Amino acid sequence: MDAAKVAQLRAFVGHCKSDPSVLHDPSLGFFRDYLESLGVQIPASSASKSHVKQESGGMPSTEFGDGNKPKQKTEDDDDEDEIVESDIELEGEVVEPDDDSPQKMGDPSVEVTEENRDAAQMSKAKAVDAISEGKFEDAIDYITEAITLNPTSAILYATRAKGYKSRGMAKALLGKWEEAAFDLHTASKLDHDEEIHSVLKMVEPNLQKIEEHHKKYERLKKEREQRKAERLRLRAEAVDRKAESEYLSVLQDGNVVGIHSSVELETKLKAATKLSRLAVLYFTAAWCGPCRSIAPVYKSLAERHPKTVFLKIDIDEVHNVAHQWNVSSVPTFFFVKDGKEIDKVVGADKTGLERKIALHSTKV
After folding, report:
1. Residues 287-295: contacts with CB within 8 Å, 24+ apart?
2. Domains, in order of start, for the chain
């Protein structure tokens, strides 16, 4: 048999010894059935495991997404379905280098005592036992302790590499590609051999495919958020256009609008403010001669300045409004912008009225 596959199988068996619950993984059902046919008692699963699927090359791949719990739609997502990640056909070319800190190496300049040598050998023996039992994390800890005690021993570094190598191969068999790549690259930097290289040739393409898969769905999610933002913007613009249309209907461009209540005046001034328009309040009375003479001029100005709001208020009909604006004589004209008085003309001053309207309407 191929040496690399035998090494992987050995590492996998060691992993099963340390954690028998991996045999309950759905993708290993065929292997579990085989063991049970031989009379083997499989321990109960101690924790749920990640779902994996078998690839054509004999290596399992991680299955992405949770099909049992579909996400609920929100009000903002009513125009598009939720993005569901598909399975990956694992293949690729390279794996990104890690930026992890270097392994502990000890201080080679320190003189190693016999006591430290003996302690290092004991830690090494524990590491070897841990590897045979599939306890790779413990093995790495033991051999790191041994290296710290005796940093001059090359064989200790090689043993630590073996721990990373065994754990990486086991994780590769379980389809844990990122973890497998990390361990195998670490082992390769410590003590490279062809067997590690052979396994990495199968792990790295899958890891690359997983990375591309994540990037693809991050891009899809980003595009979806951008479309969502665009929809919200268009909705807001539609609301603004509708509101503007309603305000325009209230103001009646090019006409003098009669005011018959304080509420009506407030509505017209609010509409003028929303549209950033100048409003002119013309206070008049039926018995006022100068008012009758300036009225045609005021109407003509409304026609010439359709973007200015021309309002007409009879002080006898809505005397509370006249009182509110402190009108002491008629005709009186108030110029209002953003709800605030900015100018005033008292009397039937045609020239002054025209000048003030031309002045303030150009600032709108």
Report:
1. 288/330, 288/331, 290/330, 290/331, 290/347, 290/348, 291/330, 291/331, 291/348, 293/348, 294/331, 294/348, 294/350, 294/353
2. 3-63+83-220 (1.25.40.10), 252-361 (3.40.30.10)
